[in-house]
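Model it.
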Amino acid sequence: QNLIKFVRELIGGIDFTRKLTYQTIFAITTSIISFTLSPFYHQWRKDSRQAAQDLSDLICQKI
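Modeled.
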């Protein structure tokens, strides 16, 4: 929950993100989340990218 709030504040607080497309914001968010979650998914490394994309969808749907 705190991670989602942090990423929303990070993305929402940066002025230049308003100029970026949704696809670029989605790619940045997915990269941040997959980097953050990678230590926790040692056994599911292939699924961590999908989990990051799912969380990115959840975060970016309000932006």
